[in-house]
Each structure stands twice: as structure tokens, then as C-alpha cells.
Sequence to fold (263 residues):
Amino acid sequence: MGVKQLFELTGKVALITGGSRGLGLQMAEALGEMGAKVAITARKADELKEAEAHLRKKGIEVLTVTNDLSKFDRIPAMVDAVLAKFGTLDILVNNAGATWGAPAEDYPDEAWNKVMDLNINAMFFLSREVGKRCFIPKKAGKIINIASVAGLSGSPQGMYTVAYNTSKGAAVNFTRTLASEWGRYNINVNAICPGFFPSKMSQGSDGHGGVPRFRGLAPRHRAVHRRRWRRLHLEIRRRFPCPTSAPCASTRMRKTRTSPACC
Fold:
């Protein structure tokens, strides 16, 4: 079997949350280039429209669904829209996330709840919905959770992201637990733990030195380019066939980080 065949996804359907920009859009592009039909969701219709045009120019069949994942009661309708268009789902990428910076002693209640609702609660509720309706009945499915190296250690000095780090730590162990529980259904559950890289969300760290600071902490003094995450995403989709491989996946991605900061 050739390398291209190892990554072949023709006929598969992938749902990517937070797919209008950043890592989500890059992963949608990578999956689409390998032949998958993709559905992307985000809160902002204008960003989704731009992402749709970008993907269609590359010949990728795409559905956009405007949805706020923190409104949990709307998750079933979002899945309905994807199934109405494509008839099934084979791959779920839980990528949508948020952060908020404040010292722990002054952290607002609403900030904590916002980060937890999107980064971990929505991840569970959507995985449960897709698993119950699509993956478990056909005894097949792939779930990729976007966690962070921030979920594997504490924050660097001057980074006040207690909710983000906590939520990403929860995402790592959620991945391990769900992989163990759903392995009997032939469902693979893995996590990718990116390090720091330039993105719209990471711009919030500019007051703490931003990208230049974290490049300086990296061994090779550079941040990860988005093309590398596209390759890593496809690689984890291919290389971890064991349904209980999540801890290995999380550890492997940690070893490839370029800095000790959060994504």
C-alpha cells in the first residue's frame, strides 16, 4: 500500500467544530484533500462563509453550520443538519475552544464557566450525541480531541489561564476514558496536544510577551507552522488504530511540541 492510500478518506464524512479558522480550518482542509466530505461549525456566519469559499476552491465538498456549542440544547439539531446533508458521520474533530486570562484569585465566575462549557462540556455532549447516533450503531468511528500541552503541566510564569489549563487537562483524561469505554465499539478516540503557535486566540497572550516570548523558550526558537498541524492531524488519524490508544497519542504529541506554552 502506498503512502497516499494510507491517508485515503474518500467517502468518509468529517465534522470539525471551530472549523472556520485556525487549526479547525486547516484540519478541515487536510481531511478534505484526502477525499473526505467535511462539515464545519462555528458561531460566526461570516467567518464560516469565508471558510466555505476557501474549501470549495480546493474542490472540497463542505457543509457549514452556524452553531454556538455552549448552547448544549442546540447540539442535536447541529448533528441533524450534518446527517441530513451527508447521511452519516465517520470522523469527529472536537476543536472548538476558548480561553480567558486572569489571576486565579480574581478569576470571574462567568469566565470559568465559559471556558469549561466550550472546552470540555461541549466536547462531551457532542461526542455523546455523535457516538450514540452514528458511531456505536455501526461500530466504527474516529474522534480526535484537540487538547493542549497546557493540560499536561502548569502555566509558565506570567500566564494566567487556570480555566484553560484545567479544561485541557480534563480533555486529555476524557480522551483516555472514552477510548477505554468505547473501544469495544471499534471507536478510536485520540487527543492532540499542541504547543504555542500564532493564532487569533493566542494573540491574547501579547501582553505577556506573545509569540516572540514563546519562540524564545522553544529549543529551535520557532513556533509551529499550521502546515505541520495538518500533517500531524492526518498522521494521528492513520497511526493509532488501537481503540485505547489515547494516552499514547497524547504523550506522542507532547513530545513533538516546540514550546511549553498553551495553544
Notes: Residues 109-138 form the longest helix (30 residues). The two ends are 35 Å apart (CA to CA). The first strand starts at residue 13 and ends at 17. The chain is about 45% helix and 10% strand.
